């Protein structure tokens, strides 16, 4: 059995879209189709029904996905445990900034496991899961939501309200608070990259809760690129208030936005994770449960 075929099927069962599955797997849409056909041939049954309008799992495919997901996670966990033990270190990726909650947890892990080294590395803002899947990091601190069948959210923490970054001279900058419907009156700057569609829509929605369209500007690859465009009057960005606090600048104003879900961070890894990662997750969440 080819592990790549199983991984491809699990991602496709989540996305139900060959193009988006290919983006997550860093392969072409035709390669996704090829891997699926190969797996179906091995099993002797159809897993997916595909028409010009929709993709859905067959009854057999739904049952197979439900059985496969925990087994695949357990296998990935065994591999990661062995890899971490062989290296004697854990590599943790992060988006944008390493928050105090994470640095305290890393210090605690170093104290309790002095033989185990923890390293950190920045990962692209628009590609929260790529470094994990390529084996470049063992875990990643990423912005939620995470709905990846091959990844585990080991800890959720830093739940924070959202703010809108606008040019300092923008009319919104004089407001004490904005409503979610106000977003239809400005253009948002999205983050480019292979992040799944649900993740991009959460952080740069295309419509307000009442269904009013929100215009978008050209995308950026980093937070600093986005804030530079905001300061130049090219659009606005939705950020959590903690990110805003760490990125204060004179040409950008940060205005609270009501009526939207809170931002949150997650510590994510493949499969069941290693003992060191589970200890890190417990330290990150702390006695308060990661709020």
Automatic annotation (TrEMBL):
Domain of life according to the entry: Bacteria
Classification via Gene3D superfamilies: Periplasmic binding protein-like II (3.40.190.10), Winged helix-like DNA-binding domain superfamily/Winged helix DNA-binding domain (1.10.10.10)
Keywords from the named record: DNA-binding, Transcription, Transcription regulation
HTH lysR-type domain sequence ranges: 1-58
Pfam family, one: LysR_substrate
UniProt xrefs under CDD domains: PBP2_LTTR_aromatics_like
Family membership noted in the UniProt record: Belongs to the LysR transcriptional regulatory family.
Stated name of the protein: LysR substrate-binding domain-containing protein
Organism: Actinomadura sediminis
């Amino acid at each position: 059995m080819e592990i790549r075929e199983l991984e491809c099927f699990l991602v496709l069962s989540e996305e139900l879209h060959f193009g988006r599955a290919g983006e997550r797997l860093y392969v072409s849409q035709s390669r996704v189709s090829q891997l699926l056909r190969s797996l179906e041939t091995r099993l002797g049954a159809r897993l997916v029904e595909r028409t010009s309008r929709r993709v859905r799992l067959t009854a057999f495919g739904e049952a197979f996905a439900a059985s496969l997901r925990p087994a695949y996670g357990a296998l990935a966990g065994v591999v990661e445990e062995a890899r971490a033990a062989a290296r004697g270190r854990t590599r943790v990726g992060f988006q944008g900034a390493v928050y105090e909650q994470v640095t305290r947890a890393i210090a605690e892990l170093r104290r309790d496991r002095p033989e185990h080294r923890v390293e950190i590395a920045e990962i692209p803002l628009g590609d929260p899961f790529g470094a994990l899947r390529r084996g470049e990091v063992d875990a990643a601190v990423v912005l939620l939501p995470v709905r990846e069948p091959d990844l585990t959210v080991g800890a959720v923490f830093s739940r924070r309200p959202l703010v809108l970054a606008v040019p300092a001279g923008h009319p919104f900058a004089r407001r004490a608070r904005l409503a979610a419907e106000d977003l239809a009156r400005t253009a948002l700057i999205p983050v480019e990259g292979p992040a799944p569609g649900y993740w991009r829509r959460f952080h740069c929605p295309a419509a307000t809760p009442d269904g009013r369209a929100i215009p978008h500007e050209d995308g950026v690859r980093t937070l600093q690129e986005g804030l530079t465009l905001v300061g130049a009057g090219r659009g606005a960005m939705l950020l959590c208030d903690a990110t805003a606090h760490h990125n204060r600048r004179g040409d950008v104003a940060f205005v609270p936005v009501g009526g939207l879900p809170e931002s949150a961070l997650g510590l994510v890894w493949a499969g069941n994770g290693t003992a060191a990662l589970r200890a890190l997750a417990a330290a990150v969440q702390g006695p308060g449960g990661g709020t």
